[in-house]
């Protein structure tokens, strides 16, 4: 079975293409910044220079190296995506597992909580929280993103848990006196691990998009760079009107490529895990 | 069915309650004296007005009262429609500022949401049964749905606005015009509306098309489809049934996506300096106008709740299982 | 003869190669005959049932012919098969509980289905047949979710037989039901034949003891081939094939599926159908195996209506 999944995984063009794109950007973000001896926000070149051999993506109105900003920005994007995605997945899993497994009033309560957070527009809540609290490191940003974007994951996991809970092997574990957390960890979670992984990928992508929107509105990290912050600066300093296309195209293209690759990976993985969807 | 709506309304009521409570609590988490820090910006801008405002807000927050009293007072003010006074546009009440902006946001959101939903679902169902279309157009759908709203807006503004010069890229109507019911004004309004609408529409369209395509493929594996095929039902009938069933999760999806769509509209408005709620939020943040920010937040939450309820009603209309009262609609 | 199957081969495409799920079966079902089709999972009985109505995406018709009322059925041509489906050959699927479109009222769905096949819906006849299975005509104005599982199954039975097919395939129709419902379903099937609503029937089942009550004949499959076909009472009381013998001797009371009990008396497991061994496929588990079993025994008639594929059955 494992062998078969791997076999399909390596032959699934969507999965392979998505993974390659993600890895390329990840390596660029990790290793790329090492090739500069200046920071992303240093004024190193002539202002408003078009892409050239020296500055691959040109420079900003202030003479900052757009390519350096882009590579550093990738780090922030991945970081906020992973942290926000992991946190949201963790909250979603805890809520989903407990609600689905325990049922009864615990389920009622958690489902209600889930639905409330689900209906609240996440970005707008984040706007107000960030604007007031004024704490804007990437970590805090990821924390709040994680705390607001878990509900749909919780709902999906709850439904899955619900259907697994009455299976024979879970009954058996329960009858032999295994305690609830252990049943969830040992019996239920492994049986939906592929599903959990898919959920995480989607949360990863959506965390990146939310962070980019926050950065763009001007509530991004105050120190450092991120792709959303680059868009914010480009818009703020009239890159459009000045025709500095090299300033606003790379960051948006980077986000689109990463999130798009995640979505495509997700579909590919779904096809690998779910034999019905495999193309014959 | 009554139970279904009862549950939904309970959730919405609680959500509103939570939103108001967040709104009340957040200033109290600010370091220092909230009134002082909220007015710090106004101090510089309109020194004359500050004393009046300080008195107003000190009374409104009522820090000398017990917490529960403060909380009740907050609700009282809210129910009277008192959201405070905007600092950015002093002395206009926040509610007036918001009500002036709301039509612009709705004018963008409602058409883009509805049109992208209908067109995306049609197109996704259409693509699902054509291999070449599925393979060529689907990747475009994934790119679209992964695109940050503001980036597509920037690209459209740059390509069609600045480079090609076909559309204006800022405001809701020409700077030289006064709002009136003349053809010139309406034309200008439409011209300014098109690009923000198009960028919202395109991103959402990609998402719906992909969602529908995947749903249809799942439906075509369903037992009722196998049965129909075993009885020799033509593909036409099978596809019609599959579409009818696949549309249900898409209606639920619309409710789930509302928050994302609203967020998209906010950032798109910022790109185009479109004078809707997104623009207000940007101004509120840049001018430290917290009353405006809080008021806008509440307005958006209320709008989203109403929209959710409308979708719930629509869901009951399309899904017989909720009508018969036996289905456990999520 | 209603149904004539000659040397039918249907393979499954899989990663590791072709699974020879149906590897040369020849048999016939007479007009008016109810034939039970039994065997373990993987014996090919479901593949046979599916082949006669609709091949799924992974199945390939490799060889052999099927004739129904003298007309050759184009198994591998999905479009041409539509002419046969519903009118000539019909199916009561295993998944009857979920076979009805959940978003259409049943009456409307049936109307649209008939319409799409160019048949004129006859409301009175439909109501009469519902009555026959003990359903009121009100179910036509209901959505499937409003019916119980048993009601849905009866609706499906009525819909499937609406055009009086020559051959009705009932695929594991009883496996999801409790014992009393199983009996009711079996009786209903019998009623369909006796009233001439269907000409012949193939009842695929796990449960020999249940099908024994309604079937005229029973056919047993093993590892993609036929083992034995005989009149029902003969097969149960005097089986000739060693596999059938062990199957029947392990027969529990009505309603208990023998698959659940495992064939304790038969050591080993069926061979892989990826590269099946030559000769008789049961020989590794057969107590009577001898040299000649390295050669595939013919499915030969040992008594009138009694066919066995075993060298020792002469």
UniProtKB/TrEMBL annotation, chain A:
Work out whether the entry's keyword set contains Transport: yes
Keywords, alphabetical: Cell membrane, Membrane, Transmembrane, Transmembrane helix, Transport
Q: How does it sit in the membrane?
A: Multi-pass membrane protein
- Check the record and name the CDD domains matching this protein: TM_PBP2
GO CC terms, sorted: plasma membrane
Which SUPFAM superfamilies did the record assign? MetI-like (SSF161098)
One Pfam annotation reads BPD_transp_1
Cited PROSITE patterns? ABC_TM1 (PS50928)
Domain (ABC transmembrane type-1): give its ranges: 74-266
- Molecular function, one GO term: dipeptide transmembrane transporter activity
Subcellular locations according to the entry: Cell membrane
Family note: Belongs to the binding-protein-dependent transport system permease family.
Name of this protein = Peptide/nickel transport system permease protein
Automatic annotation (TrEMBL), chain B:
Instruction: Tell me where it mainly resides.
Output: membrane
Question: What stretches pass through the bilayer?
Answer: 9-26, 97-119, 140-173, 193-211, 246-272, 292-318
Name where it's found: Cell membrane; Membrane
Single Gene Ontology BP annotation: transmembrane transport
What superkingdom heads the lineage? Answer: Bacteria
Q: Which UniProt keywords apply?
A: Membrane, Transmembrane, Transmembrane helix, Transport
The question of whether Transmembrane helix is a record keyword is answered with yes
Per the record, its GO cellular-component terms are: plasma membrane
- CDD domains this protein is in? TM_PBP2
- UniProt KW Ribosomal protein keyword: no
Membrane topology classification: Multi-pass membrane protein
Q: Which positions fall inside the ABC transmembrane type-1 domain?
A: 102-311
Q: Which InterPro entries match?
A: MetI-like, MetI-like_sf
Q: Which Pfam families match?
A: BPD_transp_1
| Family the UniProt entry places it in | Belongs to the binding-protein-dependent transport system permease family.
Name recorded for this polypeptide: Peptide/nickel transport system permease protein
Automatic annotation (TrEMBL), chain C:
Matches recorded under CDD domains: ABC_NikE_OppD_transporters
Source organism superkingdom: Bacteria
Q: Which organism is it from?
A: Microbispora rosea
An example of a Pfam family matching this protein is: oligo_HPY
Q: Where is the ABC transporter domain?
A: 3-248
Q: Which SMART domains match?
A: AAA (SM00382)
Q: Which UniProt keywords apply?
A: ATP-binding, Nucleotide-binding, Transport
Report a single Gene Ontology molecular function: ATP hydrolysis activity
- Name of this chain's protein: Peptide/nickel transport system ATP-binding protein
């Amino acid at each position: 079975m494992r062998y078969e999944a791997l076999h399909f995984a390596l032959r699934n063009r969507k999965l392979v293409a998505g993974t390659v794109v993600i890895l390329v950007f990840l390596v660029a973000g990790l290793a790329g910044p090492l090739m500069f001896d200046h920071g992303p926000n240093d004024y190193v070149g002539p202002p408003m220079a078009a892409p050239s051999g020296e500055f691959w993506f040109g420079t900003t109105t202030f003479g900052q190296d757009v390519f350096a900003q882009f590579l550093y920005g990738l780090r922030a994007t991945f970081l906020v995506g992973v942290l926000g995605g992991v946190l949201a997945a963790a909250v979603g899993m805890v809520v989903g597992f407990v609600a689905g497994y325990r049922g009864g009033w615990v389920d009622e309560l958690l489902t209600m909580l889930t639905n409330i957070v689900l209906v609240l527009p996440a970005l707008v809540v984040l706007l107000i929280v960030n604007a007031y609290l004024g704490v804007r490191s990437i970590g805090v940003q990821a924390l709040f993103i994680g705390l607001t974007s878990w509900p749909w994951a919780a709902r999906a996991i709850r439904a899955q848990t619900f259907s697994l809970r009455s299976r024979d092997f879970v009954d058996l574990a329960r009858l032999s006196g295994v305690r609830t957390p252990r049943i969830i960890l040992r019996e239920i979670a492994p049986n939906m691990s592929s599903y959990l992984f898919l959920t995480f990928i989607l949360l990863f992508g959506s965390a990146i998009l939310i962070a980019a929107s926050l950065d763009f509105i001007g509530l991004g990290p105050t120190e450092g760079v991120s792709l959303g912050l680059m868009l914010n600066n480009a818009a703020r300093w009239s890159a459009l009107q000045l025709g500095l296309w090299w300033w606003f195209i790379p960051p948006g293209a980077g986000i689109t490529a990463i999130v798009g690759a995640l979505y495509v990976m997700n579909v590919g993985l779904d096809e690998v895990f779910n034999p019905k969807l495999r193309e014959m | 069915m009554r139970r279904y709506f009862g549950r939904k309304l309970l959730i919405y009521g609680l959500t509103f309650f939570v939103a108001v409570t967040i709104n009340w609590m957040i200033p109290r988490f600010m370091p220092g004296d909230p009134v002082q820090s909220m007015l710090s910006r106004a101090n510089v801008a309109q020194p004359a007005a500050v004393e009046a405002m300080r008195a107003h807000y000190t009374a409104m927050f009522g820090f000398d009262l017990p917490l529960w009293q403060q909380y009740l007072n907050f609700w009282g003010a809210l129910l009277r429609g008192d959201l405070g006074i905007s600092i950015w546009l002093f002395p206009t009440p926040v509610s007036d500022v918001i009500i002036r902006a709301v039509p612009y946001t709705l004018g963008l959101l409602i058409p883009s949401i509805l049109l992208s939903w209908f067109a995306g679902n049609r197109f996704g169902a259409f693509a699902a049964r054509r291999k070449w279309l599925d393979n060529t157009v689907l990747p475009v759908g994934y790119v679209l749905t992964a695109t940050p709203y503001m980036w597509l807006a920037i690209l459209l503004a740059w390509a069609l606005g600045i480079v090609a010069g076909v559309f204006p890229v800022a405001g809701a109507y020409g700077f030289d015009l006064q709002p009136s019911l003349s053809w010139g004004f309406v034309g200008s309004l439409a011209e300014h509306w098109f690009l923000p609408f198009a960028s919202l529409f395109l991103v959402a369209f990609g998402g719906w098309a992909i969602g529908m395509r995947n749903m249809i493929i799942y439906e075509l594996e369903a037992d009722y489809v196998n049965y129909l095929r075993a009885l020799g039902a033509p593909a036409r009938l099978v596809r019609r049934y599959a579409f009818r069933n696949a549309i249900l999760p898409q209606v639920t999806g619309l409710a789930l996506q509302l928050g994302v769509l609203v967020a998209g509209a906010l950032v798109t408005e910022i790109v185009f300096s479109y004078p809707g709620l997104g623009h207000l939020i940007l101004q509120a943040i840049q001018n430290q106008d917290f009353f405006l920010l809080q008021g806008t937040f509440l307005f958006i939450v209320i709008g989203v709740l109403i929209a959710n309820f409308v979708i719930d009603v629509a869901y009951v209309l399309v899904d017989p299982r909720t009508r018969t009262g036996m289905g456990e609609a999520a | 003869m209603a149904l004539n199957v000659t040397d039918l081969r249907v393979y499954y495409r899989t990663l590791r190669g072709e699974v020879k799920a149906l590897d040369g079966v020849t048999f016939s079902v007479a007009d008016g005959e109810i034939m039970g089709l039994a065997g373990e999972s993987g014996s090919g009985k479901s593949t046979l049932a599916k082949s006669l109505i609709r091949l799924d995406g992974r199945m390939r018709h490799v060889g052999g012919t099927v004739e129904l009322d003298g007309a050759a059925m184009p198994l591998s041509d999905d479009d041409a098969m539509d002419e046969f489906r519903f009118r000539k050959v019909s199916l009561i699927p295993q998944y009857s509980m979920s076979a009805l479109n959940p978003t259409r009222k049943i009456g409307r769905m049936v109307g649209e289905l008939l319409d799409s096949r160019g048949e004129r819906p006859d409301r009175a006849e439909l109501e009469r047949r519902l009555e026959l299975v003990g359903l009121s005509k009100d179910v036509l104005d209901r959505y499937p979710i409003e019916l119980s599982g048993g009601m849905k199954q009866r609706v499906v039975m009525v819909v499937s037989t609406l055009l009086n097919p020559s051959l009705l395939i009932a695929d594991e129709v009883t496996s999801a039901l409790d014992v009393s419902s199983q009996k009711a379903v079996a009786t209903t099937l019998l009623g369909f034949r006796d009233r001439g609503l269907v000409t012949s029937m193939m009842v695929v089942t796990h449960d020999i003891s249940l099908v024994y009550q309604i079937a005229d004949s029973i056919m047993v499959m093993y590892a993609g081939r036929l083992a034995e076909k005989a009149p029902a009472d003969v097969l149960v009381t005097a089986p000739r094939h060693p596999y059938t013998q062990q199957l029947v001797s392990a027969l529990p009371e009505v309603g208990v599926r023998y698959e659940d009990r495992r064939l304790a008396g038969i050591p080993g497991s069926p061979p892989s159908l990826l590269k099946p061994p030559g000769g008789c496929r049961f020989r590794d588990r057969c107590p009577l195996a001898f040299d000649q079993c390295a050669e595939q025994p013919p499915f030969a008639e040992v008594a009138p209506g009694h066919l066995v594929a075993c060298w020792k059955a002469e």
